[in-house]
Design a protein that fits this description.
single chain, 7 helices
């Protein structure tokens, strides 16, 4: 089923923009649903701003903007999507399948875990990593599509929850 979602085909610019917007919307929906669910489980009210700001702190707005909206998307999409997924395609051709989705799952978990705060980060940022991987593959391995979703999300968090 996932192979059908991300089957390779050439997309025009309008379709790529639609996939980027859909990826951003899925991230927004998933994170807000997760926050609601975690609050329900804990029986407490944690607002989104407090939850997201606990993951990182950089003293100046310029530094936060540069690292979260520019540097992080460029680096993280290369490290967690482009290189591993291209490797997954090559391994799939050699062994006949299955490696790509294992690599996507592992990099999604590592991406979530690497963002800081245990299970919450693993779940929220892991989900976002999966969405960005799907956007990357759905747009024909277009690096700038997943970078755009990542940068838009980080900008959204920076402006709405700061």
């Amino acid at each position: 089923m996932l192979d059908k979602i991300v089957e390779k085909k050439a997309l025009d610019t309008k379709s790529r923009i639609a996939v980027v917007c859909a990826g951003f919307a899925l991230m927004l929906l998933g994170v807000n649903t997760s926050v609601w669910f975690l609050n329900w489980l804990a029986g407490a009210q944690m607002n989104m701003s407090d939850m997201l700001l606990q993951f990182w702190y950089v003293p100046t707005f310029r530094e936060v903007f540069f690292f979260s909206v520019i540097a992080a998307p460029l680096w993280e999409e290369l490290a967690f999507r482009v290189i591993p997924i291209k490797l997954g395609y090559k391994i799939d051709r050699l062994v006949g399948g299955g490696a790509l989705w294992l690599i996507v799952a592992l990099t999604t978990l590592i991406f979530g875990w690497g963002h800081g705060q245990g299970t919450v980060s693993l779940m929220l940022q892991g989900y976002m990593g999966l969405i960005m991987a799907l956007v990357y593959m759905k747009t024909g391995d277009h690096y700038w599509s997943s970078v755009s979703v990542h940068a838009l999300w980080n900008l959204f968090v920076l402006t709405v929850y700061s």
